[in-house]
Amino acid sequence: MRAGFLVLLAALASFVAGAASAESKQLETEPKFPPTCIVLRAGATIQLSVQSALDHCTPYHAVELAPGKGSNGNKFVIGPITLPPKISLIVDGGVTVYGSSDARLYQIPPPPTPNILVTQTCGTVGDYPIRGICKPLISFTSDSGIYGYGVIDGQGEQPVLVGLKTIPSWWSLLTEAKDCKSAPEPADKSGSGKPCQQASPILISGGLDNTSAKNLTLYKITLRNPPFHTARLSGTHIVVWDVKVQAPWNVPNSDGFDVHGHNILIKNSIVANGDQDVALTSSGRPVDSKTITHDVTIDGLRAYGKGGIALLDDGPGFSDITIHDFAMTGDLPSVVGTTVNGVTDAQMFAEHGVHFYQALTSASDDTQGMQINTGLNSTSLPPGRKISNVSFDNVCMSDIVNPIHIGPLTVPSSPPRDGYPQISGINFSNINILKPGPQFISLVDHGSSYAPGRYKLTLQSDPKMQNGLTFKNVVFSNGQRSLASLFGTIVAEGNVITALENVYPAVLNNLDQPSGNKSWIFENNQYLEKAKTTLPEPTIPCVPSKFPFVTGELYAGLGLDQTGYNANLQSAIVRPSTMVTLYAMVQPVMSQTSQYMPSAYGSDPGLFAIGSPALKGRVTFYDHGQFIGNTMIGGNGTIATFSIAHIAAGHHSFSAVYADPEGARFYDPLNFGTVSIDASD
Asked: Residue 648 maps to which CATH number?
């Protein structure tokens, strides 16, 4: 009997392990474009709206938004839409889907409140809940996704119609909210949320309104200029693959991916924005409030400028979070040279009262890299919270003020009611923080001058417990700079540390000893093991290719019509003499929007983010490495096309290269990968 029971146990264990392996393998498989149920062409006169087409699409198919003809042949303008379950959206390369700038379209009617008149208006600032005032631009839930080489632009920088008046932009609400927070709160509050909350729409919402959402996908798409957060995804089996997020670095609340749930993969994606690049949360409606966020992998993320990867302590906790191959830089192209986009520093000061150095991301003194932010809500966090088994591995970082931060983001007026979470099994391995570059500066005296920047390091636990940390090959490369000029502040309190192999500088090996520096606080730290070496040897190569400033995709389309139904192909089998069109989608990784934000990040008068210049180069195409032609970028400023009228029989391996004509150091030649076409009878 017992032997049979053990056999049954072994079989069950094998089944569970097999299921887990199958889930993991499913996430690691690159998504494929779903079949199309209907193609809508930009600029064409169509009978069906986008929402109607989605509502009438066949399950497990997609509505495809394709280029058309005429002056609006690359443009769709939509209000909020919802993808039904099992229905997806494809946005073709060369197409930009713009979110409407009419706030009335996004308005969610507030629930009735007995005896109280509550005015909650999308496009305003007030005593609002963070969600529930504005509809997202695009919402979807189980077995749905957004695919394509095109762009979804929320037009966060454009004027917005709110009722009968026009406000400067969705982003202008940031300054209004900040001014509101600095004013005294009214004695009688009739709202139901936080004071001075901006009511702006999320760009993409996946799974937030469904308690069992699963199989959510974002693939290849570019998400640009969100009015508020970019993509909020919640549920199980979430895949984000080769997605680009673009917003100015000084626009807070433009989070790249806010993710909650389990079995989640974010792979080979790029985020350039003004807040967290990836924010992991553990609270929310879609997953049981008692369920932690777990089994999350972030692999191959490239980040530019602001918030890095953050675990936000706002719920029951996290476990089994893996971050691998993460590169982040604050050395951005927006302030290189004596002019930016043809504007001199003198012109910028005359117009905006700020200098170019105030446009540096590090000037805000608020850039983050690898974060575990604790105690975000001091009144409603559950007791007994745990954050465990978190791994940061193979990380390159340049000119980020706070490369590693564990603890409260700001000093709270009072600690959380039930304390901070228990933090254990946090591993930092193969971490290379580059020496500060020429753009790594800090503002002094409210922007009147500037000085070389210095890193901050925070490793802070709850006073009643200790963090469990491991360092393995963790190096801050300071070059010729002194240790005092490398670190501004270090707060290391309540840590049990295992230091393996090399850590540098040596202070990382001695956080259990008095520092002798008034700006460094070392308290209640102990080592289970100390590293035997503390040398400034790079742990991993941080070569320029880790920080590309141009991104691109190569794909093919078939048929006489270059905007035909058979686009978005990475490989195909065709008959000889078929017409094949190659599409090279190329764009800067950063938004091309320039935006002055008064009083942003506490800087007086404000900070100015300047987007990347438009690309003007030529794309060269090859077949098996042999030159076949080149074309200039056209089609909405992001795409170059090359058509082969009659493809020859045989196997073809097409590739393409983009090289910036001016040879700017940020625009190294870009290789797009390959497309395989087999032509045979």
From this structure: 2.60.40.10
